[in-house]
Amino acid sequence: xxLKYIELGRSGLRVSKVGLGTWQIGASEWGWxxxxxxxxxxxxxxxxxxxxxxxxxxxxxxGGGLSEEVVGRAVREFRDxxxxxxxxxxxxxxxxxxxxxxxxxxxxxxxxxxxLYQVHWPNPVIPLSSTMRAMExxxxxxxxxxxxxxxFSLGRLRRAQECLKREEIVSxxxxxxxxxxxxxxxxxxxxxxxxxxxxxxxxxxxxxxTARYSAANRPxxxxxxxxxxxxxxxxxxxxxxxxxxKEIAAKHGAEPGQVALAWLIRREDVVAIPGAKRPEQVExxxxxxDFELSDDEWSALLEAASKVxxxxxxxxxxxxxxLGI
Length: 325
Ligand SMILES: NC(=O)c1ccc[n+]([C@@H]2O[C@H](COP(=O)([O-])OP(=O)(O)OC[C@H]3O[C@@H](n4cnc5c(N)ncnc54)[C@H](OP(=O)(O)O)[C@@H]3O)[C@@H](O)[C@H]2O)c1
Prior knowledge:
Elements: E1 5-7, E2 14-16, E3 20-21, H1 38-50, E4 55-57, H2 66-75, E5 83-88, H3 95-109, E6 114-119, H4 128-140, E7 144-150, H5 154-163, E8 169-175, H6 187-194, E9 197-201, H7 222-226, H8 232-237, H9 239-251, H10 256-265, E10 270-272, H11 279-286, H12 295-306, H13 312-316, H14 319-322
Helix pairs in contact: 1-2, 1-11, 2-3, 3-4, 4-5, 9-10, 9-12
NADP nicotinamide-adenine-dinucleotide phosphate (NAP) binds next to helix 11.
């Protein structure tokens, strides 16, 4: 076994089923420069490349642009061997706004072309057609290779596609992990049918599925203080799932987080982009492709995970989480 690769839609871009997320770069909300910093993340990206992890996700908003800069610098020696995905923030979603944001991203990344350019979130007050026309124009200009969206519902994904004349949307990046499986209802089946890749963000449920956290040992950063999954009541409810992840991991000589990723990437059109702060984390995440779960293990995980639910009340506490910032 080992890393597998799939094509993003019909773009010709081949990406590893385990990629690398880089929201962590420059993000004070994740504890940037408190326990990890530039050297760690550059090493992480270089190590990812050595391991065959060729898909790197960033965004203009991450670290106020620092994430794109660091990614660009880190991949300079092997730029053609990686697929770089970045995103335009919704406040720049007008036609001109998208064109300008893309120029800034190209400059920060230090590249001539962005492999996958994604609309980060829908913006309900800007006509989707303007945004998508600009995305198409960028492909025409040779500044972007393929168009993706992120956090788009099924209805909006369809409308976005209808706005394009020549290009196809090749991917939708959404929150998807063992305990947050809302996309399975209609979005994932649609993407599978249409050959649109589903890029799963927060595939480790922001670290919950590494089974390192508990009600007595909660992460302290801003991101996870806002995430209802790290509420003590949810962490307590998640204990049987954590135990199962550890048991299955032990059988495969693996780690709990790898089991959670293996569960996710078993689906053909799903690519996971775990965020990593240090090289050891990307090494561990890449190894999720080294073993396969049995059908029984897969269903047992599903059952245990179904019992963990964040609860609507705690979602109300965390409007920022809904914005993905
Ligand atoms: N499109 C969007 O709106 C959107 C939203 C969110 C994220 N994203 C993208 O998706 C990526 C991943 O999502 P995410 O960062 O929210 O969550 P995630 O990948 O589920 O969790 C990342 C965190 O898990 C921990 N971790 C990672 N690998 C580990 C390992 N091998 N062992 C132990 N701990 C490990 C690290 O935190 P600790 O070490 O501190 O525990 C890391 O910061 C982001 O970087 C970003 O590129 C996109």
